[in-house]
Design a protein that fits this description.
Blueprint: H1 2-18, E1 20-25, E2 30-35, E3 40-45, H2 64-83
Antiparallel strand pairs: 1-2, 2-3
Helix pairs in contact: 1-2
């Protein structure tokens, strides 16, 4: 039982280390990936301007808010899996 819990904790730890949130904006022309802690991991910008783009004040320019929420949801789910009752079938 302890070995199973230890293995599960190691798996969750690895998954937490690999968790990345993804988000996009401007119809997919701008996309970002953030690490679980919120650090920027990747930023992709399509060099062609999206139709109707009016400038940098149009909201979340790179989808970073969406990516941060995505990473938070992933890490929350992983941590919650550790808190589940190990005796429940």
């Amino acid at each position: 039982m302890i070995e199973e819990q230890t293995t599960r904790m190691e798996e969750v730890g690895q998954n937490l280390a690999e968790a990345r949130g993804r988000g996009e904006s401007a119809g997919g022309h701008v996309s970002v990936e953030v690490l679980a802690g919120g650090a920027l991991a990747a930023l992709r910008i399509d060099p062609r301007p999206p139709p109707g783009l009016r400038g940098p004040r149009g909201g979340d320019p790179g989808g970073s808010g969406e990516a941060t929420r995505d990473a938070a949801e992933q890490t929350g789910a992983l941590l919650n899996s550790l808190l589940e009752d190990p005796f429940r079938g």
